[in-house]
Specification:
2 domains, MetI-like fold
Length: 302
Amino acid sequence: MSVGELTTIEKEPARGNLFRPNMAARKMRSYVFVALGLGSIVFGLLTLVVLLVDIFIKGMPWLDWQFLTSFDSRFPEKAGIKAAIFGTLYMMFFTILFSLPLGIMSAIYLEEYAGEGKLNRLIEVNISNLAGVPSIIYGLLGLQLFVRWFALERSVIAGSLTMALLVLPIIIVAGRESIRAVPSGIRDASYAVGATKWQTIWHHVLPNAFPGILTGNILAASRAIGETAPLIMIGALTFVLFTPNNPMDTFTVLPIVIFNWTSKAQAEFHDLASAGILVLMVVLLTTNSVAIWLRYRLRKNR
């Protein structure tokens, strides 16, 4: 063995000693990170609890049958949210009616039929980016497209189409993930018995993916029901003394009425806004509960 090789062997242990596993410091950093994470969760939950308690305290005294069955008024003791409740239900019905079929069809095409070309990749990237676009941009688009070009004015159908554009990327992304999660063995078994591609999708892929698609629709509806900016941009009314009877009627929704009341100077209207928030939470939780129950039943049946 040469002198140079012996020198190299003698230096290797010294090089290995450069790594010193300080376990005490590493455990301390781990504990600090866990504590920060738990502290962030506790702080967020406490903030939410404080806000909910404040809303309950201010809103519960105003929450009665007269508040639910009366129209808005310039006098706080006579104001109600009847028009806003009907407008919200109308808008959400047509929003889901437009967005759900279009979202499912788009997800089927992108996941089952589209190839790996540049155009399809561009479409996928744009859909993912559209899910994060601020809602007021959709309001500007709805104002120009539906209110002005299609001359739908400030109607329920214009608001529903605008909100459908807002939630469509969420439904498409959730639908693609649900279709992708269906085991390939189901498709192979269907093809093995002679089924066509569309028969496989309609009878096997969609029934198995529908619970996940419904989950995406729940998330989309939860976002749409609380949005205010797009409806303000298309001109949804803040003071309505009637309920919409057809899709071309003007309308208002709960977030618009709550926004209008919070902008007034009287403290009573601020309390009315708290009562409106409670009603909006009940509507949101009810629709979500029904959708979750349907999803559970579908999964159980499958």
